[in-house]
Amino acid sequence: MLSIYPACFYKEKEGNYSVIFPVLDIATCGDTIDEAMKMAVDCLAGYLYDAKIEKAEVLKPPKMEDIDIDAEYDEYVTAFVNMVTVDVDEYAKKHFEN
Length: 98
What we know:
Elements: E1 2-11, E2 17-21, E3 26-30, H1 33-54, H2 69-72, E4 78-87, H3 88-95
Antiparallel strand pairs: 1-2, 1-4, 2-3
């Protein structure tokens, strides 16, 4: 099943990127935008997979227009919100399960 959550991508002064999922209160980063996107998928998949295993409640994704990008973090050069998608079961088969 495909899961879709918005994430805030922040380009730092040093050139790397920080990524925050506002509703889930999780974050990751990457040296490039491509690496940050891959790490965002991995972060989201790991969070949702753990929640599934623990039978924990997961908040529904907010609408992109409801996200205040500056409310999450304000020390960046540029920033944008992007949807991150992952099929958690398929991702887990390839990356988490033995």
